[in-house]
Amino acid sequence: MSNTVVVNRLIIPPEEAMKLISQAVTVYLRVCPCRSQMKICPEDKWEVCLLFEHAPEEERLEARLISTEEAIRIIRMTTERGDIHQLFYFEDGERPYELCNCCTCCCYPLREEKEKGNHYKDQLHSRYITVTDLDLCNSCGQCITSCFFEARQLDVEKVYLIEDLYFGCGRCIPDCPEDAIQLKYSSERGIPVPVFQSQVS
What we know:
The protein has helices at residues 14-23, 33-38, 57-60, 68-80, 108-116, 142-146, and strands at 7-12, 27-31, 47-52, 64-66, 84-90, 96-102, 128-132, 152-155, 158-161, 181-185. It is of the alpha+beta class. The longest helix has 13 residues, at 68-80.
């Protein structure tokens, strides 16, 4: 994440990440600062952070300009390996700034909040939530293992969701062997994903 003043951060599902990329005027790709510092992930997985046109020039100079198609391929690739798409944007809500494809081993903001045990109070909730078909669910617990936020729990052999700890990343969905989980939009929950309402020349 950039050191630039005051940004909000919002975890978004891959479909919203690709939609946002298609709206951007320019997209840049750079090495993830968390990965390069922690050095837990292999080096060939470091170049995954996407910057948009609103990013400061000095940060864009550290990145390389890429096409919309390449950026979408990165979202698909990082989704397949279980990364979490974390959007940083300015407080006016109109300037998406950076889209990080975060691993759970190196991401500083996510790891810090987990270690503090503050239930991610600084993390904003999106308007997405998973719905589990209990008729299909076999209570294998695979989705519980894949949930970084520990929002999915097992009670009396049925999975339930702790909504305050759920952020709509959809990371559990491909791990479900029964295809029992769906990600659904809920207008009554969280905040909308920011859009590019103003463009720069």
